Amino acid sequence: MTSAAEQRAAAGEGGGRDTRPAAARSGVRRPAPLTATALPGAPAPLGACFGPGPDGTAGTNFALWAAGAEAVTLCLFDDDGRETRVPLTELTQEIWHGFVPGVRPGLRYGYRVAGRWDPWTGARWNPAKLLLDPYARAVDGEFTLPAEVYGHVRDWPEQHVADTVRDDRDSAPFVPKGVVVHDDDDWADDRPPRTPWADSVVYELHVRGFTKRHPGVPEELRGTYAGLAHPAAVEHLVTLGVTAVELLPVHQFAHEDHLLGRGLRNYWGYNSIGYFAPHAAYAAAGPAGSQVGEFKRMVRALHAAGIEVILDVVYNHTAEAGELGPTLSLKGIDNRGYYRLQDDARRYADYTGCGNTLHVVQPQVLRLITDSLRYWVTEMGVDGFRFDLAAALARSAHDVDMLAPFLAVLAQDPVLRRVKLVAEPWDVGPGGYQVGAFPPQWTEWNDRYRDAVRDFWRGALPDLRDLGYRLSGSSDLYDRSGRRPYASVNFVTAHDGFTLRDLVSYERKHNEANGEQGRDGSDDNRSWNCGAEGETDDERIRALRRRQLRNLLSTLLLSTGVPMLVAGDELGRTQRGNNNAYCQDNEVGWLDWSLPAEPGWRALSELTSRLIALRRRHPVLRRRAFFSGQAHSADGLRDLAWFTARGEEMTEADWYAPASALGMYLSGRGIPDRDERGAPVLDDSFLTVLHAGDRPARFVLPGPPWAERYEVVVDTTREDQATAPGTVHRAGTAITVPERAVLLLRVR
Fold first, then answer.
1. Distance (Å, rounded) from C-alpha 334 to C-alpha 339?
2. Which of 21, 494, 591, 712 would bridge with 725, disulfide CB 3.0–4.6 Å?
3. CA nearest to 445, candidates 427, 430, 426, 464
4. What is the b/e burial string over 336-360, where b = at least 16 CB atoms within 10 angstroms of the residue's CB?
């Protein structure tokens, strides 16, 4: 290993500065850590595994993959923070391992890994830095990122070479530690709902933000896994009717240095550092390993209510950022093995916009990810995963490849091929936009659905072609590869961007609270403020906004595909125009549970529940196969038909012409499904009329043979949707559709 002085010389820098701790410079020495001896142990499983040793004595086996390391030292910490070092001398197929008798659950630990310091070749070993076990099941403490946790001298005057100057200060007092965990829960009393994709309604929520202000959740449980498991929280989900919660990241994550410097924190959690550990700050029971059991109890409570748990996971990058980032775990274990590096190995290949990209084609990195996924399914009980920037995981050497090792492994894995897999089908690298390209067992966030629906309701669609595809399941994206309509996760809003209320209240982002001078967040919001920027006392504008919210929610929940709602949109939640609230761990990011007390917002929630219940009752609204446009029943009617405001079927020319109104007829006699006994699935037929114009429109209801009468089931011009409107219209007559409205009519 080379010293800082040698690094300065190699970098061509003169001068000198002693970067050792003040105590070392003054000649004062800290007591040397205690040293113990490990038995040989076993190279599998990776991580810390409590159990009996060779003579029956209880202890813990430790195993760490560190391919290029010269030495690995296990560091054990007692309750007073005193460190005992245990050299791991056994090396089997690049895995360092040893069994330490007497180490029991609850003990904190980390690793020091020695090797060459040669950033020019990607080697960044530094035994002064205590490293988190990538397989740690729990983490005690929080990453605060002082200078000592950087493998290089973070504050080196010449920043362009700072990453080449090794920092020899001990980081152990400043970093969290892994916790030995032992849990023999067999999940015998768990009953996973196993909801088919076609029947799913996904609800994206933040564990902390959903419960932090919930008046029905005890104060000591708010913001925690236990809070989400509380009956008051579960009751809202059940009343709403959603079938799955998609949790923003709950893997242990760290806060970025630039946020901590501004007094902010990473709220969303897309900065993972522990792929097996539930984020400790979300545990009411404390961080010393009890967060594992608390998370499991949350999953059980949701399962008991018929709700699946999908995790938003970030395997594309870690919290260690680029060459100027901290050394917390993988960077110090085997930088070249874990991360994609550029030809100039000092630099990281960054397909994520976060400084680094995990080297997923490396077998041990692929093992880390798949071991983590299997752990969350088999040990923690979750039902699926949404993969952040999934295209980065599908890259081979450089390009996105749908035959990449990551996708191939998941396709054949006996555990993972049975769970729900959702791709965010893009990254920030070349060729990274891959909507519609993922393999058959995957579903995808469909941003083309989002854009088309937003543009239609703000009057910005040039014609109706794109909207027709999105409403009917996006067959242009998914049918040609043999996929089904439920491959499309339809959404109008997500955690990233405006809330639904802000989408109709702001035309510009208002991210000043983030402290980035408006540089963060998208400028392509496709929003319309209805005539005033932000909150207003103008009741005319307020009423229009509420109607637009009803229109957007109705469109989403009446479309073919899998609808995804964002927590709080059904309550009228606002982030005050902030479209990138990733660092707003405060009332901006938390749900406001006082909103349902206002009649307008309570009615919105009731409408959302009604629409979800309609989907549940009517299979024609949640088809498992694409529409063919052909007749499938004796009445000779096609399974899907489109109508102009004149009551005539759409021609090719109509699809290319500007229009603000569209009718979509779904035949309940044309469903190509059979029930479990083999009988055809039959349902009511429906006509959905969408009108985005700013004036009332005359719409002729299609006459026989399509229908004899139509009964109004949903009318978004009505504030109160607690009961069905019930109005009946004769087929073939013209009705007046008010401006900006959705009508759902049942064929009679």
1. 9
2. 712
3. 426
4. bbbbbbeeebbebbbbbebbbbbbb
Q: How many CB atoms lie within 10 A of CB 498?
A: 29
Render 412-480 in DSSP notation, one character per residue. Answer: H-TTGGGSEEEE----SSTT---TT-S-TT-EEEEHHHHHHHHHHHTT--SSSHHHHHHHTT-HHHHGG
Residue 740's nearest CA partner among 689, 692, 690, 688 is 692
* 245 contacts 307 by C-beta, under 8 angstroms: yes
The answer to whether the CB of 485 falls within 8 A of the CB of 673 is: no
- Plot region of 459 (φ>0 → left; ψ -120 to 50 → alpha; else → beta): left
Distance CA 444, CA 391 (A): 11
Phi, psi at 10, each rounded to 5°: -65, -30
Q: What value, to the nearest 5°, has the Cα angle with vertex 251 and ends 565 and 402?
A: 70
CA distance 143 to 125: 20
Surface-to-core class of residue 549, CB atoms within 10 Å of its CB (0-12 exposed, 13-18 middle, 19+ buried): buried
Phi, psi of 277 (to 5 degrees): -105, 125
Give the confidence band of 721 by pLDDT, cuts at 50, 70, 90.
low
Contacts of 546 (CB under 8 A, 6+ apart): 572, 600, 604, 719
Q: Which residues are catalytic?
A: 388, 424
Q: For tokens 């001896």, name the residue.
A: 37
- For the stretch 727-745, pLDDT in tens is 999 999 999 999 999 999 9
Gap between the Cα atoms of 104 and 43, Å rounded: 19
- Asked if residues 667 and 638 have their Cβ atoms less than 8 Å apart, the reply is yes
pLDDT in tens, 115-137: 999 999 999 999 999 999 999 99
